[in-house]
Amino acid sequence: MQLFENKIILRWRSSLWKLVWCELLIYTILFLSISFIYRYALTEEQMVWFERVVRWCGKQYTGLPLTFLLGFYVSLVVKRWWEQYCKLPWPDSIAIQLRGLVKTSDERSLMLKRTIVRYCMLSYTLCIRRLSVRLRKRFPTIKEIIQSGLCRPDEAIRIGDEDTAEIYGSNWWMPLKWSTELVFNAQKDGLIVSAPGYNGILGQISAFRSGLTSVAAYGHIPVPLVYTQVVTLAVYIYFAVALIGEQWIIFRNPGDEIDLYYPIFMTVKFLFYFGWLRVAETLYNPFGEDDEDFELNGLMNRHFKVAMNIVSESEDPPELKKDVYWNTPDPELEEGNWYEDMIGANGGYKTINEIGADGFEDPSEAITLTEKRDPMY
Questions:
Q1: Alpha carbons 305 and 297: distance in angstroms, whole number
Q2: How many CB atoms lie within 10 A of CB 93?
Q3: pLDDT digits over 242-270, tens only?
Q4: Which residues, 6 or more positions from 311, have their beta carbon under 8 angstroms from its beta carbon?
Q5: Could you give the count of Cα atoms lying within 13 Å of 228 in the half-sphere of its Cβ?
Q6: pLDDT tens-digit readout, 145-165
Q7: What is the C-alpha to C-alpha distance for residues 265 and 246, in angstroms, rounded to an integer?
Q8: Of 116, 131, 294, 318, which is least packed with CB atoms within 10 Å of its CB?
Q9: Cβ–Cβ < 8 Å for 141, 161
Q10: In angstroms, rounded to a whole number, what is the distance separating the alpha carbons of residues 47 and 38?
């Protein structure tokens, strides 16, 4: 009941039906065509011979360790898919450390922090665009990167040609090298006075480079082709033999067995095994344009916006005040009207209970962003 309430089974985007409907339709047509020929086009002698072939194929193909092969392969691909996302670096830590280390607010200090953030995002773009189809379409050449503001023309000349087809031909690491030189000069000029802080910011830049290197390595070193071929070949041979081995034989003795035309349980097996294989094919390259591939354009926009705001925002933090649990020895988070008087006295605003969670009038109607995107929640 839960499945149908959440409409999981009926969902189309990223669904099993979208992945295998075409193959399932072709397979069903082939199966029914063979069944029609067996029942209506063969002579009695040919039918007996065909039934022997059906029994032989039924015994042979069941011994193939398809579940083991597919299970191991899919687990490997899913593991690679998740690790690649986890290894994508975020510039937030670099921006926060810059904000804390370089406290002066003059134009040169602000220029230093913004330039380091820009260099980090420039390296991010140059590295990932070699893997991501979406970023490649957004930045097909260095010219589009210059037009976006991530790179100046003189910097692009120093970086060099980024359209080479060689695996290790990119100079995406160069802006990170410039960042370390800027940090060194900042310490020498007194903008960074803390030695541990200086070491920490260099460590963050190195970690950012390490993350990009790890992601690039996944793109350069794929799953061995022979393993992918073995699994794919096993699935196709299994269901090719099943076209014969799963045919229903006409039993001529009354009461021997029911006679079915449509392969019900064969369809279920086809959905499971081919769905498994299609999942692996979909997640094999997470930098493509499939439904489950990484939306790197939005992620990169988020990184640039947040990191720039962290290093540039000049607004002071909220005033330091005692919290509502100040005199409570064992504080517990509970629903209440802690700020009712404070909010109500300021222009007649609603209380927190009246507003509810996430801005809903009724807190019970609140729904998370994860629930909006994923029907499993």
A1: 12
A2: 18
A3: 888 877 777 655 655 666 677 778 888 88
A4: 95, 98, 99, 110, 113, 114, 116, 117
A5: 12
A6: 999 999 999 999 999 888 776
A7: 9
A8: 318
A9: no
A10: 6
